[in-house]
Amino acid sequence: MDLKSILKSLKLNEGNISMFLGALIILVTGFYVIRYFRNLDTQNLLPEPGQTEEEIEAISEGAYTIKKGDTLWSIAESQYGDGYKWSEIAKANDLENPSQIEEGQKLVLPGTTQEAVSGAIAGATYEVVKGDSLWNVAVRAYGDGFKWVEIARENELGDPNLIHPGNILTLPR
């Protein structure tokens, strides 16, 4: 096959190629939209079905009321997306026996206060939580996302896109 016949074949199938590429764009866009909403859900920014406004507000303020069938593992998975954080919940609540929790008991969830989720950062240091980015930290610390560069420079970050939960960042003031 020579170049002329290939170009002629492409010209004849232009409508099919356009339709295929359009469908591909729709699929990719759909994938990213679904991924976006799943990410919101894993960060507990979307309420669970059947949650009352009081429960939603309590969770955003760092409190959790134990429901029937809950375990520290299941609570950690639903609130942090990581079941292994059950030990942090147990430690924050001074639970002598973490396997003995009761329905209706209120727990403090470390790192899930409204300030940690979306509020301003006032201190000179900040502990990174799951879902953080330098842009979001800069917005919360300075009200200007473009100051992420200063945070990266101050902390001598080789790759500013690579921060992990638990990292302590120095915030230049």
The CATH topology of the largest domain is what? Answer: Membrane-bound Lytic Murein Transglycosylase D, Chain A
CATH uppermost class of the largest domain: Alpha Beta
Widest β-sheet, arrangement of strands: 1-2
Uncertain spans: 42-46, 113-118
Query: What structural class do you assign from the helix and strand content?
Result: mainly alpha
Could you characterize the architecture of this molecule?
With 173 residues, this protein is mainly alpha-helical. It has helices at 3-12, 14-42, 53-60, 72-80, 86-92, 114-117, 134-142, 148-154, and strands at 63-65, 106-108, 125-127, 168-170. The strands form two sheets. A two-stranded antiparallel sheet has the order 1-2. Strands 3-4 form a two-stranded antiparallel ribbon. Helix 4 (72-80) packs across helix 5 (86-92) and helix 7 crosses helix 8 (148-154). It starts with a helix and ends with a strand.
What are the salient characteristics of this protein?
two-stranded antiparallel ribbon, 173 residues, 7% strand, Membrane-bound Lytic Murein Transglycosylase D, Chain A, flat, mainly alpha, 3 domains
Summed up, what is this model?
It is built from 8 helices and 4 strands; from the N terminus they run αααβααβαβααβ. The protein is mainly alpha-helical. The N and C termini lie far apart (67 Å).
Question: Layout of SSEs?
Answer:
Layout: H1 3-12, H2 14-42, H3 53-60, E1 63-65, H4 72-80, H5 86-92, E2 106-108, H6 114-117, E3 125-127, H7 134-142, H8 148-154, E4 168-170
Antiparallel strand pairs: 1-2, 3-4
Helix pairs in contact: 4-5, 7-8
